[in-house]
Amino acid sequence: HDLVAIHPYSPLEDPYSLYPHSLRNVDELCASIVRSHRETTQYRVEELQALRWKVLSREEIQVYQSKSVDEMWQHCAIRLTDAVQYVVEFAKHIPGFRMLSQNDQIALLKTGSMEVVLVRMCRYFNTENNTVFFDGKFAGVEVFKSLACGDLIAAVFDFAHDMCALKLTEQQIALFSALVLINTERPCLEDSSRVQRVQRSVEFGLTHILHRDNQESLMHKLYQRMAVLRSLCSLHMEKLRWFSQRYPLTAHSLFPPLYKELFA
Ligand code: CLR
Hints:
This protein has helices at 2-6, 15-18, 26-40, 45-50, 58-65, 69-92, 102-120, 150-165, 170-181, 192-212, 218-246, 248-254, 257-263, and strands at 125-126, 131-134, 137-139. It is mainly alpha-helical. Bound molecules: cholesterol. Cholesterol (CLR) is lined by residues 73, 76-77, 79-80, 83, 117, 120-121, 124, 132-134, 144, 147, 149, 152-153, 156, 236, 239.
């Protein structure tokens, strides 16, 4: 498996993952999830803020729009896979994650990693002009026209817009991302009671910081967003199946192996 090859399992590196129950307190759990989030998000929020003036020009938009369907899919699949790789790295440092079996780690990442990429997208989103940081500049929905899946793109942009409206702090985003990943309802889990223990600790961590921030009412909204994430990811899978049927060669030989492993 690519996932494992890229990130060899080494329990000794991370003592917390072996004994999550021995965490001195919930602060320590939150701090370690926040640290892992910080270390695996390519850009800091302030950096992205400073880059907002970089918007694609007409001509640059034209270049994306005149790409063929399979060329643009391949391009986006590569970008998405990059982002997924950072999420895999994030997951590995969630206390308790590496204590799970390899099978369960992969099962969680299969559905969860794309969802976390979409959660992270709100950091890369500018609600003033509805653009997302893509390939070094801010891009609107029209840039993705040649993918021929306008409904998915519109839904993804809507989701990012709604997430931005919640004005989450980096800590809240970190804990929410962890909760999205560690989910006992994912299919094909071998040891869901173990996953449940980890899930409970992350849930406890999120509740704790929302309480500390005086924003307990966010919990309900975040659970609602999790349902939206699920539907977005099944739409993504549906589009991928459609694409693979029409362009089997591109999907088979030109997509990144990790993308295929996770989503195909
Ligand atoms: C999300 C946050 C990550 C960095 C990142 C990288 C790639 C971006 C992604 C973000 C947001 C969604 C994105 C993606 C590339 C293509 C994809 C813009 C900013 C759009 C929605 C197209 C999806 C196409 C699939 C159907 C292949 O940390």
